[in-house]
Amino acid sequence: MRPCRGVLTGLIGCLTVAFIVFSARSGADDEDLFGKESKDTTNIIGDDAYQSYEMSSNKIQIQRHVTPSLAELGGRGILPEMNDHVVMVTRIPGAGAELLVLILQRLQGHNAFKHIRLPPGDDGILTNLQQELLVEEITSIIRQEAIPLTFDGDVRFLNFSAFDRQAPTFISLVRDPLDPRTLERFRNGDSSMIYSGSISHFCGQDTRCTQRNSKWALERAKVNVKRWYPVIGILDEMDKTLEVLENFYPEFFEGAKLVYKELKPKNITQETRPLKKSIKKRLGKVLAKEVEFYQWLKSRLLNETPSKERQNN
Ligand SMILES: *[C@@H]1O[C@H](CO)[C@@H](O)[C@H](O)[C@H]1NC(C)=O
Ligand SMILES: *[C@@H]1O[C@H](CO)[C@@H](O)[C@H](O)[C@H]1NC(C)=O
């Protein structure tokens, strides 16, 4: 048994040394990738990812938990609760977020990030287990890729901190709940895309979020937006939306306005009849809280954000 144990000890020793070498190397690589500014955040994400790459290429199977929990890191003041090198577009069906996704897909090569589409969903409420699995899946992708990432998915607001994970920076796009174009579509039989507001989306994964005209849901949506969604775009204000996004996140959105100009149909003057007054009034009542929320989001987008140009003027 003796010699055999000697060999084993030696092997473990070698693996440990190899591991330390890999760790040291991966730390150095990350700095190159991200530059100095973002060193703190990226090292935390990066080390783990590089280790798993190195490991698999050397066919060494070692289970190691090198990622401290968010609570540990937060306690040490290292990790912000939101990762600003990862942006997640939570798509609201029928609100036009595909446009944002298209722009991100066009920009990824140019701005050196990667866009990842999550498997399709229905923007419905997820069980606790589904939420946890999704959070873990996204967290693990972020670690493996170790470069700036953007995601999009049909997911309502997902509370990463409830699972002790660092959240991505959430962004989204909404539209006017009384937009006549939505009703037009509905009349034409495309009910899958019907858009009737966004409170429930931003309120999150609680059944109470789906109640219509609920004050509780509205307040919760506002709280989540203030805390987790630095920018929410407005479909009818695409130029302003992209301007704000370029200002906030040039790492991802630099050049977005140009791309949008190319994508924009040349003749945007789609004929849509305005809503009849009576219909608008009735709908306005049914969707009262949604209209209130939309106005709040709109004024937030238009006012909250000092652009560089405006500051200089
Ligand atoms: C998200 O999770 C944190 C931590 O568990 C909790 O304090 C917060 O209330 C949650 N927010 C929502 C909207 O669920
Ligand atoms: C755009 O619209 C104008 C008038 O509405 C029309 O004359 C023109 O042919 C259209 N151009 C294209 C490319 O469809």
Keywords, separated by commas or semicolons:
Rossmann fold, five-stranded parallel β-sheet, 14 helices, 55% helix, binds 2-acetamido-2-deoxy-beta-D-glucopyranose
Please give the domain count: 1
User: Can you give the helix content as a percent range?
Assistant: 55-70%
Ions, cofactors, ligands: which are bound?
2-acetamido-2-deoxy-beta-D-glucopyranose
Q: Report the principal-axis shape.
A: globular
Give the CATH class. Answer: Alpha Beta
Distance between the termini: 81 Å
Q: What is the count of helical runs? A: 14
The biggest sheet amounts to: 5 strands, parallel
* Percentage beta strand: 5-15%
Strand order of the largest sheet: 2-3-1-4-5
CATH fold-level name: Rossmann fold
CATH architecture classification:
3-Layer(aba) Sandwich
Report a brief summary of the structure:
This protein is 55% helix and 10% strand. The chain has helices at residues 2-34, 39-57, 70-75, 97-111, 128-145, 180-187, 199-203, 215-228, 238-248, 250-253, 256-263, 277-286, 288-304, 308-312; strands at 82-90, 114-117, 149-153, 167-174, 231-234. It has a five-stranded parallel beta sheet with strand order 2-3-1-4-5, with helices on both faces.
